[in-house]
Design goal:
The chain is an alpha/beta fold and 486 residues long. It has 16 helices and 24 strands.
Length: 486
């Protein structure tokens, strides 16, 4: 028998099929479009998600490696708003996590309701990407559609509904709605009242490894399944990805160097930063996590190589000390910054340039700037009593051994690069396996996490990075007023 993990990403769905030993037998990826109807808007048609998954699942069950299906788990893009009417039909295109139309509604939440109330009720402050501001926007700008809402779902949970008929979500994904009291693991009545939402419109809350139903008979018949597999709640993309690399205990950490950069740190208890510098969410293993998000990570490198230098991204770099050790600094804030600055006005920039500066030194400066922003996030967690002992690293930026080693030196912890495939889809499949085998998510995640290379801090390099980080930390306080209204 086997298990399926469905990762509903922003541009594509990835369906992973694993066997009883957690080996990936097959992965299917299906793309779908994103619509940008107005400046700053980002929407998708949930029917496009469903069509892609239906096709992908058919390919899974038709494959020679397919031997049966015990359970299906889910991971996927967070924060999106999927509104359904009383018949369970989609009212409007889904508003995605990267949609920025809700600047006014976000400000209303942070000022009229107030950050103190938000932190007390949800553990987080409002961001334009979260679900609650989207509901406020819809209530103001589309009141007729808003009045028709009977069910409010997150993207992955819409797929769960189509497969099982259940209206369900998990705590990790619900944490990003700004409607969940994360500490108490229940919907916040005060937030619901402020947004004009009835608790009955919200999905039932579950742990990520809970079984919430069975695959509907019509899909079992279509896919030729003799027995209906269990449907497991799943997790938000970062929480599911953390399961895929065994990051489920306090002291662990997962770093993602994608377009944006995230640093995911599990905690044994609910912790909250008074300045909301880090997100305080539930995890997929029954506890909590702190997460920092730097909005521009590998995208900084891609921007520099493509937009500016117009060189191939796989260009090799010199490792000469005169190139590695340089006087340049890069503030990696191409899109403003979320964690820990919470400053949408700040922008990127090089400092320390001279006539002797060269393009390779500037790439090293970009690598350093992103590493320093990750350390900024880790410093907040450390001040809250969380000690990180080691980290895994994933994403496109993790393909650079130079960058991985640099992050190990900057954070002064071992950095492990996973072996083989990992990510939300694999993590979702492990959640399905944990449920079916009656094992804890922690146990399964730890058992199947494997790594191909470990980068350990280099003692001879640490003084250089300590001094560079000390000076880097002075830049934002000096320049933040300059960027206001720029």
């Amino acid at each position: 028998m086997g298990y399926v993990g469905i990762d509903l990403g922003t541009s594509a769905v990835k369906i992973s099929y694993i066997d009883e030993e957690a080996r990936i037998l097959l992965s299917i990826t299906k793309d779908y479009p994103i619509c940008y109807p107005e400046e700053g808007w980002a929407e998708q048609n949930p029917e496009d998600w469903w069509d892609a998954i239906r096709q992908g699942m058919q390919e899974i069950v038709d494959a020679e490696v397919f031997t049966g299906l015990d359970a299906i788990g889910f991971g996927g893009q967070m924060h999106g708003l999927v509104a359904l009417d009383v018949r369970g039909e989609v009212i409007r295109p889904a508003i995605l996590w990267n949609d920025t139309r809700t600047a006014k509604e976000t400000a209303i939440l942070n000022t009229e309701l107030g950050k103190e109330v938000l932190l007390k009720e949800t553990g987080n402050i409002a961001y334009a990407g979260f679900t609650a501001p989207k509901l406020l926007w819809m209530r103001t700008h589309e009141p007729e559609r808003f009045a028709k809402i009977e069910h409010i779902l997150l993207p992955k949970d819409y797929i769960l509904y189509r497969l099982s008929g259940e209206f369900s979500t998990d705590y990790s994904d619900a944490s990003g709605t700004l409607l969940l009291n994360v500490a108490q693991r229940k919907w916040s009545k005060r937030m619901c009242d402020f947004c004009g939402v009835r608790p009955s419109q919200l999905p039932t809350l579950h742990e990520s490894g809970d079984c919430v139903g069975k695959l509907r008979d019509e899909w079992c018949t279509l896919w030729g399944l003799d027995k209906a597999p269990d449907i497991v709640a799943g997790a938000g993309d970062n929480a599911a990805a953390a399961v895929s690399v065994g990051v489920v205990e306090e002291g662990d950490c997962n770093i993602s160097l994608g377009t944006s950069g995230t640093i995911f740190m599990p905690t044994n208890r609910f912790l909250q930063d008074e300045h909301a510098s880090l997100h305080a969410f539930a995890d997929a293993a029954g506890k909590f996590h702190l997460m920092g998000c730097t909005l521009s990570a590998a995208s900084c490198y891609k921007w520099w190589m493509g937009n500016v230098l117009q060189r191939p991204e796989n260009t090799s770099l010199s490792t000469e000390e005169s190139v590695r050790h340089h006087p340049l600094y890069f503030m990696p804030y191409l899109m403003g910054e979320r964690s820990p600055l919470n400053d949408e006005d700040v922008r990127a920039g090089f400092l320390g340039l001279s006539s002797r500066s060269n393009w390779e030194q500037m790439i090293y400066a970009i690598y350093e700037g992103v590493a320093f922003s990750l350390r900024d996030c880790m410093a907040v967690a450390k001040n809250m009593g969380v000690t990180v002992n080691k980290a895994s690293i994933v994403g496109g930026g993790a393909q650079s051994r130079i960058w991985c080693q640099m992050i190990a030196n900057v954070l002064q912890i071992p950095i492990a690069k996973p072996a083989g495939e990992c990510g939300p889809g694999y993590g979702a499949a492990l959640l399905a396996m944990a449920h079916k085998k009656g094992r804890s998510v922690r146990e399964v995640a730890k058992q199947y996490a494997t790594f191909e290379e470990i980068f350990t801090p280099q003692p001879e390099e640490i003084p250089y990075y300590e001094e560079k980080y000390r000076k880097f930390s002075q830049l934002y306080p000096l320049l933040k007023d300059f960027y206001k209204g720029l």
